[in-house]
Amino acid sequence: MKLYGIDLRLLGHRNWIVAADMAFPLMTHPGIRTQFVDEDLPAVAEKVARAIESQPHVRAKVYRDAEIAVLGSENWAARFQPALVPHGDLLLRLDETAKLYPVYVIKTRHCRAYTSVFFELDCGYWSDEKERDLRNRMRNR
After folding, report:
1. N or C: which end of the chain has fewer CB within 10 A?
2. Rounded to whole angstroms, how far apart are CA atoms 121 and 11?
């Protein structure tokens, strides 16, 4: 399945997709691929979420800028149940990730600060609990 030219079948855990507001920076790391779409952020975030949910091999951990909690949350984003992380920390995570894995930023025409939605992909058929159990068993061998 392709979404905004991104072939989701090729992505896996550790890839990121960001549905971004208009002021989101154009990051210079070559692993970060940015494109602009003339759509509103809530619609793009919803399309990204649905596309990820339709894939059997990935699921998303969703983040938003912690600053939005002070500025006032928007109802459209509640569906994502995001963890709140400071904006600068999220940008650093994207930069670090892009050293090894592609990161996709879909910039929208949305003009409200700190409203981007960050989707960190994880394995869709392997849970965090299973991973912790595996790591514990490996340590106890």
Report:
1. C
2. 8
pTM for this structure?
Answer: 0.93
- Residue 48 phi/psi, 5-degree rounding, is -65, -45
Predicted confidence (pLDDT) per residue in 83-106, tens digit: 999 999 999 999 999 999 999 999
Q: Rg of the chain over CA atoms, in angstroms?
A: 15
DSSP string, 27-94: ---TTEEEEE-SS-HHHHHHHHHHHHHT-SSEEEEEEEETTHHHH---GGGGGG-PEEE-HHHHHHHH
Residue 4 near residue 37 (C-beta atoms within 8 A):
yes
Q: What's the rounded Cα separation, in Å, for the pair 84 and 36? A: 24
